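User: Good morning. I'm curious how zinc ion would be positioned relative to this chain. Could you predict the structure with it bound?
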Amino acid sequence: MRRLLTVAALTAATALPATASAFCRTWSCDPRKEACPADPDNPACYQGGDPKRHKRLFWPQKCIGFSLNQAASSQLGTDPFGKFQKVADTAFLQWQEVDCGEGKKPTIAFADLGAAECDLHQYNSSQANANLLVFKSKTWPYQGAENQLALTTLTFNVDSGEIYDADIEINGTQKITAGDVEVVNDLASILTHEAGHFLGLGHSPDGEATMYREYVPKSTSMRDLADDDRKGVCSIYPPDRVNLPECNPIPRHGLGTKCELPLTDDKGSCAVAATCGDQGGDETCAMGPLPRSSAPWFALALGGLALLRRRRS
Ligand SMILES: [Zn+2]
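Assistant: Good morning! Here's the predicted structure, ligand included:
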């Protein structure tokens, strides 16, 4: 039986070897429900999994469409949606334009499908969907994770690791800035990082990488991918990937820009809900239902970007 598991991107902080420098994949493993051993190919990937039971997550197709919540955030000043869209387009484009060697690009490409009314992260297994980017401006719904800047939720097939849906929530209760003037928490850095989670990358132990788990306020360095990030995307989506379906950026079961209800599951799936986040370097994970608790899936948080409070010495 095919089952679905929704993974909300989270982050777990453990002491990491300072010298390790290799990207990490996201696995279909919930560290609160089961043992998630280190990736056998990269012991620094502390959110790894057991290849016999778990899968590495990936998009099976080349073309992926994303949608942007039409409200964007009033924090962004004039034309907030326009700024949101420009920053998001640039963030995703960076990943697809990587040179994997000899000028060849990864076999992944994004399409901006425009504005969406929906402001919830969700996946419909029988109705239209959107891979949504949305600011949560009133409250950040993840208790104990107020320090998180964003969270990416992946819904995937647990038998294959194929990603079906990805949603990026941005913590609009934090000061978020777009542009180069008076940068506080840089939207471009945040979205470039979350786009990495969207693709199936976890947190890298490489402090130079965009996929490093902590953001230094006022910094813009995560806007630009590092070698480690490039290796990551080229590893998951190598240029020579074959038998790809015809390029179609429309989400699974069609594009839905409104929050479609009810959420039903066509395969009797079950899943696990969890929200995890960095709290100044301490690991904080909590199990709990998603806000939409009638959903038959649960979420495993796998990669929010946290504000840096204090580096461990
Ligand atoms: Zn992250």
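Confidence is low (pLDDT under 50) at residues 1-21, 263-303, 309-313. The chain has one domain: 4-307.
Let me know if you'd like a different ligand tried.
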